[in-house]
Write a structure and sequence with these properties.
Elements lengths: L4 H32 L3 H9 L2 H13 L6 H11 L2 H31 L1 H10 L3 H7 L1 H10 L4 H10 L4 H7 L2 H17 L2
Length: 191
């Protein structure tokens, strides 16, 4: 069966995102076995003593191209306190991620109307921009569900002039990602 170009794009980039997820998980488990198993108290006490700092780092990371994967914060939350507290943190992380994605989308929309970006698009990205407009929906879904940098994709899609209502609708896949990944982390860390 021949897949359309859009579906090929979605599958290809979805597989790349899953490969990155596996790499992140492998790095986490390696870190857990090599570093945390030898001196767990030193690491845990440093991080858990400052939850406000963790929340600020998360917000910063979600705004600036996902420097740290949200799964690290989910793991922090599952180890921090009770199960209801974990789900409250998971909800907080999902809402912040969705909101920061929309904020960077709006920044991209602002740059779309800015004269210097119009010049940049016309001269430097003339081949990429039509593809971005054509595959914007799939790019949003792939970035929402995989470790592809969420806010960077939101910025690009916004700067391509993608409609706000459609972005907000398809960005809801980001909440699905948090539900799925949160459940997986819950299942792997609760005994």
């Amino acid at each position: 069966m021949k897949l359309s170009k859009r579906m090929q794009f979605l599958v290809k980039n979805g597989l790349k995102g899953m490969a990155w997820l596996l790499l992140i998980l492998a790095a986490y488990f390696l870190f857990k076995e090599v570093v945390l198993s030898r001196t767990p108290d030193a690491w845990v006490d440093q991080i858990y003593a400052r939850p406000l700092l963790v929340y600020l780092v998360y917000c910063f990371s979600e705004f600036f191209f996902g420097i740290f994967p949200p799964e690290l914060f989910m793991i922090w939350a599952i180890n921090k306190d009770t199960i209801p507290h974990y789900f409250m943190n998971l909800t907080f992380f999902a809402v912040v991620s969705y909101t920061m994605g929309y904020l960077t989308f709006l920044i991209g929309r602002y740059f779309n109307t800015h004269a210097s970006l119009k010049y940049f698009k016309k001269n430097m990205l003339k081949e990429v921009w039509p593809q971005l407009k054509k595959y914007g929906l799939f790019l949003i879904i792939v970035a929402a569900l995989t470790p592809v940098p969420w806010s960077a994709v939101c910025l690009l899609v916004g700067s391509a002039g993608y409609p706000s209502k459609r972005f907000l609708k398809y960005a809801l896949f980001r909440l699905l990602r948090f539900a799925i990944y949160g459940y997986i982390i819950y299942q792997t860390h609760v005994f």
